[in-house]
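Kindly inspect both lines:
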Amino acid sequence: MKKLFIILSATLVIACNSSKEKSKVDKNTSKEMISENNKEKVNDTVPYEDSVMLLGKANRNGFQMDAFKDWFNTGYANYEVDSETVEKLKPLLKDITITVFMGTWCEDSQRETPHFYKIIDETGFDESKLTLVTVSEEKTTPQGFEEGKNITNVPTIIFYKNDKELGRIVEYPIESLEKDMFAILSGKEYKHAYAE
């Protein structure tokens, strides 16, 4: 049983980190992603293994699809927010925009994304200032939303002020999502898990 757990753990780490893994994304989906009036669609899915994955721009409504709602709703409901740190975050989020890159296929994303949404709900963050991008196993989208963003692992949560990146949380927090967000937004020294 211990061997099986180690093998499964190693497989999950490789799945969320490896850019060599090939997903079953139809390269022609980019044509379907843009509507006739050139507005971006959100929450589009493509086939993935025995189910689907979200690919491209998305929002929390996408997580209520049958393929995702169990892990999202359970993760959201069961997460206990650090209320003390959330109170400190509230004023710091005022002029912030956030971009989240995640993969619905990735266990790290499935764990952290519902927690992140619960935290921003507790802070009263204006969700119109949040961009959610769902990526393939190669960390790509048909529209190239990831280009120039150095997305190597997911989830990657990037915090901006006046269009300047303040910092990012990559794959998992160092202390906790709330404390890592506070460190980034308060200007403290912070290095994400893959920083050199």
About this structure: Helices lie at 2-17, 29-33, 69-78, 83-92, 107-123, 177-185. Strands lie at 45-48, 51-54, 56-58, 96-102, 130-134, 156-161, 164-170. Residues 107-123 form the longest helix (17 residues). The chain has six helices and seven strands.
